[in-house]
User: Fold this.
Amino acid sequence: MTQTIVTRHKVGNIDTWLKGHQDRLDVFGPAISGLRTFQDANNKNSVVLVIEVTDMEKFKAILNDPSLKALKDKHTVLEPITVSMPIEV
Assistant:
């Protein structure tokens, strides 16, 4: 079952980060079926991703994989990365 989640984080350089879009698709591809990118209106270096996750355990493992540090650094990703899950109201 696909679940929509939202992630938010800041980047050091939005232009550098945007160039890494295909890398994000390649890395998270085994666990997602879609990814939409948004930028905060008041802070160009703050981004939001709306992600259609098909395998949550695999997604979490990829997100927390320490071997991705070099890729995060290359794309100027700044911690923390906040993940928001849907809730039933």
Notes: The chain has a mean pLDDT of 96.
